[in-house]
Amino acid sequence: MNARTASEPTTMKNRTTSERKSARELVVTRTINGPARIVFEAWTKPELFKQWWVPKSLGLTLLSCDMDVRPGGKYKLVFKHGASEPMAFYGRYTEVTPPSRLVWTNEEGGEDGSVTTVTFEEQGGKTLVVLTELYPSKEALDAAIASGSTSGDMSETFEQLEELVGTLK
Amino acid sequence: MVQYTHARLDASFAALSDATRRGVLEQLGRVDASITELAERFDMTLTGMKKHVGILEEAGLVTTEKVGRVRTCRLGPRRLEDETAWIERYRRLWDARFDELEKVVEQLKRKEKGNERKDRK
Q1: A136 — contact with chain B (CB < 8 Å)?
Q2: What ipTM was assigned to the predicted interfaces of this complex?
Q3: Is the CB of residue B82 less than 8 Å away from at least one CB of chain A?
Q4: What angle do CA B96, A55, A70 make, to 5 degrees?
């Protein structure tokens, strides 16, 4: 047993939701047990971000993670899966408002790339995270769905993830 | 689940193996169209286009509805199903990611508490 007597129970798992909110928008929500200040920190400090953005279960290796988190600052993430060629995801932060809002572009997909907005809303020591991916057109989002990819993410690993999650349930 | 997915994909791939049919889907992704309009657009006979639309319809990629003398084609239920499945996969990716984020946040919270205790001493 460790000495963490003061922390809240963590047995109740928080729910993640996702929906296509409009022709051009995907929205994901989740409540995180912790103040917005800390969630924002985990999202904007590379050494922390690296610990959670690529869940170990995906079998992906994060080769590099450069993040210049300020308006206009660039980021670049490079992943590798098995023997495949490394994949790079990159773009720019356009809004950085601690601890409530973060906006970045996803430029690896060219002009059809989405813009990701994350808002952090604290309530009673917990933080509601709302992540919106806005595509330039309905066609761009349709194409992303049809090709099985999503901006800034690991398109080729969705299938694996699905299988993995299936075996865990 | 995996088997089911494969059977669906097989039907879809067969339907999508033809460039004209892929073009028709792309076109219907923009706007619904009649068979006549599609035939004109792809410079094809009505009979030829009817065949292509028939294959897409069998694969569930397109639905058609006849109103008067015009048969209108639109993207079919299969597409919607795939979108739902895709959004669920997307949710699971984020769910796994947020679970990891929660662990990091928990560590940071504990660290802060530890520091507060030290400060008080």
Answers
A1: no
A2: 0.78
A3: yes
A4: 100
Strand partners, A27: A19, A132
**CA of A97 to nearest chain B CA: how many angstroms apart?**
19
pTM, to two decimals: 0.65
A96: β partners: A102
Contact residues, chain B, for A114 at CB < 8 Å: none
A96-134 pLDDT, tens digit per residue, is: 999 999 999 999 877 778 999 999 999 999 999 999 999
Asked if A166's CB is within 8 angstroms of B109's CB, the reply is no
- The sheet carrying B62-67 orders its strands as B33-34, B70-75, B62-67
How many whole angstroms separate alpha carbon A28 and alpha carbon A41?
19
As a CATH number, domain B2-75 is 1.10.10.10
Q: Which domains does chain A have, with CATH numbers?
A: 17-153 (3.30.530.20)
Nearest to B93 among A146, A161, A163 (CB): A161
